[in-house]
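Please annotate the following for my students:
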Amino acid sequence: MRRPCGSTRSCARIGGWRPRVAQLRIAGRAAAPGIARGPWAELVRPELPAPRRIDATEVSTEVARLREASKSVSGELRDLAAKVRDSGHADESAIFLAQAAMARDPDVIDAAVAAIERDLVDAIGALASAAREASERIAALEDELLRGRAADVLDVADRIARRIAGIATDDGLLTSPAIVVAGDLPPSVTATLPRDRVLGIALEGASPTAHAAILARAYGIPAIVSAGGLVAAIRSAGPNVELAIDGSTGEAVIDPDTAEQSRFDGLAAATAQARARDLSEAQLPTVTRDGIEVSLLANIGGPDESADAIRLGARGVGLFRTEFLFLERAAAPSEDEQEAVYRQVVDAFGGLPVTIRLLDVGGDKQVPYLEQPREDNPFLGVRALRLADRRPDLFITQLRACFRAAVRGPVKVMAPMIADASDAARLRELAHEARASLDRDGLAYGDVALGVMLEIPSAVLTGDAYLDQLAFASLGTNDLLQYTLAADRGNAALDRYRDSLHPALLRLVRESVEACGRAGVELSVCGEMAGDPAAALALVGLGIRQLSMSAPGLAAVRRAIRGADASLLEETADAALRDPGAAEARARFDAVLASTSAGDGLVAAGG
């Protein structure tokens, strides 16, 4: 099955060529859930020709070759975007629309042209140098999501260079079912692999936010990343060994023995069984033993996540992240484009509420067309609604799209990074302007409930000054914890400050419940805390009655709540408020959770 890799075609090398070694376990990072076990294939692409010096008389020819290849590749990537979209993955198709724009990006192409003219180097060498510099600039960014886009620049440049060199694209990469092994996997390759032959993906590099990982999750392919030493180890193991990976933990086992094979097969069976149980319980009411009802909603990052959330019993959307519409493109999305996406989600949830979060970028999430200056402390900088002072048009356009989508069903809109009453007033002003402009344009729109995210301590502490002028609030516990404990959530050295059951955060949750009660407005939680079963019990004990989380967390939280008594949760929460730290508070709720887990089979059968 091995194609000679000296050919001009890309190929997959099935297995390796060195003596077999004993079973080896490698720890990577989880990228896409699922279990895969079987043969492995290393993707090997033909090397590009080495850069060469050119004569001055060749400059115009090389420039023309570069620009023509750039144009052709841009068209190829638009076609790939359409193919991905037509396969039911509209969100992921945006990856390749962004790459199509990158292929014509003047920052890279013009830099390459300048190198051809200045250094008398051929188009392939000039493009490689320009792309490498652009990639290094992106890789130096603080945000992991944006750092992952450095690979996109290199992927696009590689496609252009192969077009210049006359090397065929990646058809015929995988000829039989296997787990794909590579140092990294360009998104354009990931999208064109035959999915019926990809058992899983195991990468030595990349991150969970890389496009290869995003696509793997969208396609339901188990994947691990950051598995250091994987490629060399599996080459040494030989061509006939199996590889087993767990996409939920990041674990890889090379040449698993009989016991490990049985373990992985058991994990696969357990995963399927757990999924079946989650689906069977999806429509059970989330009610405590003593009758307190809690509404479970879903956090989604795009329309394609709606179906799974609905199947798992989400009673609406508590957080629709809209950043995917604005990132990885040359200009902001149009109002019509946004309205179509929002309408798709509203239609999918069929009358259940959909809460759309306004654009949350800036600072660490740089968007090139916004031309935001670099900040020393981006998490405390100009981000989210604070951008409205410079670019109110972004938010008015987004709000117009939300109002228009509300014709199809209930829509709620919330603004992130609210610090005080003046920010809440700014949201209301922008919404008023959006409605007025729709009236002037004669466009139909529906009612939208306005709310804010409580993720800055000052927003909680001054809530009485503005909450009664809104319809709802939602606690963004990720940032609220970060700002309360002055601990960057991306800094691994500060892990001990990351537990959301810290009494300081619990006190802010209690204060939020009381402030929203006084104002008569709804309060939910949409941070990761809501999807942690023990923390969810604490939130119910503190008075929260709406929890929003990623869809995979719905089942476990539902079971935990159905097995608990609200009266006990309230007593435990009161005690946790007086605890000296998160460890003590978590111990309390872990004990309560354990007691609910012991009887959850009986609970699931009732109600």
